[in-house]
Design brief:
Elements: E1 4-9, H1 13-24, E2 29-35, H2 38-44, E3 52-56, H3 64-74, E4 80-85, H4 90-99, E5 104-108, H5 121-135, H6 139-145, H7 149-162, E6 173-178, H8 182-190, E7 201-205, H9 212-222, E8 226-229, E9 240-243, E10 249-252, E11 258-261, H10 273-284, E12 288-292, H11 301-309, E13 313-317, H12 327-332, E14 339-341, H13 343-356
Parallel strand pairs: 1-2, 1-3, 3-4, 4-5, 6-7, 6-12, 7-9, 8-9, 12-13, 13-14
Antiparallel strand pairs: 10-11
Helix pairs in contact: 2-3, 8-13, 10-11
């Protein structure tokens, strides 16, 4: 049996042991070596050829960001999963790692020395498996094998048809959902939106508590439009992008305020895209535009159905640009997606829908 070869990088010997034990407990993966900092890690790459790398961000001598940049120069095809503590620096460094090509990230549950890191074992091994598919360049083949040919034909026909479609509804709000690969996709979309957009934008990115604030700040610093981490009770105003905080569902209230809650996770996640889409459809009805971007699972599919049932416009990301074609695929297979576009065209279509709907 071929095993996924993993290189573990962490400045803590205890953490290296704990992470390695979690990985080695799986039949389909093994840790081939470990490294104590960025320099050690890059040196190890001269001898070892991993399929996946787990990378701590806060390390002496050479931190994770610097190591990742060096890795990108020489070994760009090796996917990296960043492991970060929820410290004052961790989330910001993690966002920078994602911007520099990291495949995904995982939060350490309780600081730099996480004695309870076993809580994240399931997520870690799942992300390693997905990353290994990317490394083998066979993710596309696997995705094709799970999609019926007739569905691919329908999607191609849909894309041809929608390029000449006219937006005839007045768009009053935009809702966007994303998961794995979402930070990079959302960065491309949000930073392309104009300062004066005339509608509010609500975003759910599957991300743990402690990281969404850094994510919102990074988007805000690089976007014409204002971006904030949402707070419960916030009055909804135009020309603002509201990012759902990690650990809380974000819903749009009929009082036109943000409502956060700690209701049980949906599809194993909180915040959930479905919670946002369904609540927004009840407030904005046919004047809502929804977008489902890259991600694993099917969160957002039920919400897409609700948006369409209310008369709204529904978009999803094309398989060709998704890191993981899970959420967009699930949404598309409901038969309620109006338009499908690659990520580099999503912002343009959102802007077009909002502008044309107001003429």
């Amino acid at each position: 049996m071929h095993k996924i070869k993993v290189l573990v990088v962490d400045d803590s010997a205890l953490m290296r042991k704990i992470i390695s034990d979690m990985i080695n407990s799986q039949e389909d993966m093994e840790v081939i070596t470990t490294a104590k900092n960025g320099e050690d890690f890059l040196n190890k790459l001269n001898k070892y050829k991993p399929n996946v790398i787990t990378l701590d961000v806060e390390m002496p001598k050479m931190d994770g960001i610097t190591a990742l940049k060096e890795l990108k120069k020489k070994y760009i095809q090796i996917p990296v999963i960043v492991l970060s503590s929820v410290s004052s620096k961790g989330p910001k460094m993690t966002m920078e790692c994602l911007a520099n090509g990291a495949f995904d990230f995982l939060a350490k549950p309780s600081g730099a020395i996480s004695l309870d890191i076993n809580k994240v074992q399931e997520d870690l091994v799942s992300k390693i498996r997905l990353a290994s598919l990317k490394d083998k360049n066979n993710l596309q083949e696997i995705k094709k094998s799970t999609i019926k040919e007739k569905d691919l034909t329908k999607e191609k026909d849909l894309k041809r048809e929608i390029k000449s479609s006219n937006y005839k509804k007045t768009i009053e709000a935009v809702v966007i959902g994303a998961s794995t690969g979402g930070p990079k996709a959302l960065y491309k979309v949000i930073t392309s939106l104009p300062k004066k957009f005339n509608v509010p934008v609500f975003v759910v990115q599957h991300m743990p508590a402690g990281f969404t604030k850094a994510f919102a700040e990074r988007l805000d610093a690089n976007s014409p439009i204002k971006v904030v981490e949402a707070k419960s009770g916030d009055l909804i105003v135009k020309d603002v992008v509201y990012i759902a905080p990690g650990g809380y569902h974000m819903e749009v209230g009929k009082d036109k305020r943000i409502h956060l809650n700690e209701d049980p996770p949906v599809w194993g996640v909180r915040p959930a895209v479905d919670k946002l889409f369904i609540s927004a459809s009840e407030v904005y009805g046919s004047n809502l535009l929804s977008v489902v971007l890259t991600g694993m699972g099917k969160d957002g599919a039920d919400g897409t159905v609700k948006v369409k049932q209310a008369g709204g416009i529904t978009l999803s990301e094309d398989e060709s640009t998704c890191t993981i074609y899970g959420m967009p695929k699930a949404a598309f297979e409901t038969g309620k997606v109006d338009r499908v576009f690659p990520i580099n065209e999503i912002a343009e279509e959102i802007i077009k829908a909002v502008q044309l709907s107001r003429r």
